[in-house]
Write a structure and sequence with these properties.
The chain is α/β, with parallel strands linked by helices. The protein is built from four helices and three strands; from the N terminus they run H-H-H-E-H-E-E.
Length: 138
């Protein structure tokens, strides 16, 4: 799941920079799982922003997980998210399908709930020179 803005009602364009940043990670996962019974997908956000208590990116991620469950059934899912996408992945980690989360420079506000992470594998990767999201939050 790609990053986004704190607040934005705009729909993301088909080719946006936050989405492009994840292409190398997507390709790496596809190479690493070639020949295995693995499905790789992406979440399409309805809005570019988190948008306060609406948490649009998390709502869209939950909707995508529900749709995946309807299509494929109960399968273990590892979510990979960057920045706002990392926040969304961590937020929906309590979904029945989610077994793990990888957050790449995730946006982790200090008051964010974490109980949903119990029993899940969680890996957060964050450079200490990030000027957009606070690495200490990770």
């Amino acid at each position: 799941m790609h990053g986004g803005r704190s607040e934005s009602e705009e729909p993301p364009s088909r080719l946006n920079l936050p989405g492009v940043r994840l292409w190398p990670f997507t390709r790496a996962v596809l190479r690493a799982t070639a020949g295995l019974d693995v499905v790789v997908g992406r979440v399409r956000y309805r809005h570019r922003g988190w948008n306060g208590t609406r948490a649009d990116a998390a709502r869209d991620a939950c909707r995508a997980l529900d749709e995946l469950e309807q299509l494929i059934g109960l399968v273990p899912v590892v979510l990979v998210g960057h920045s706002m996408g990392g926040r969304a992945a961590l937020s929906v980690a309590g979904h029945d399908l989610v077994s793990g989360v990888v957050g790449l420079a995730p946006w982790c506000p200090p008051d964010e709930p974490v109980a949903q992470l119990g029993g899940r594998g969680v890996v957060l990767l964050h450079g200490d020179r990030d000027r957009v999201t606070d690495p200490r939050g990770s």
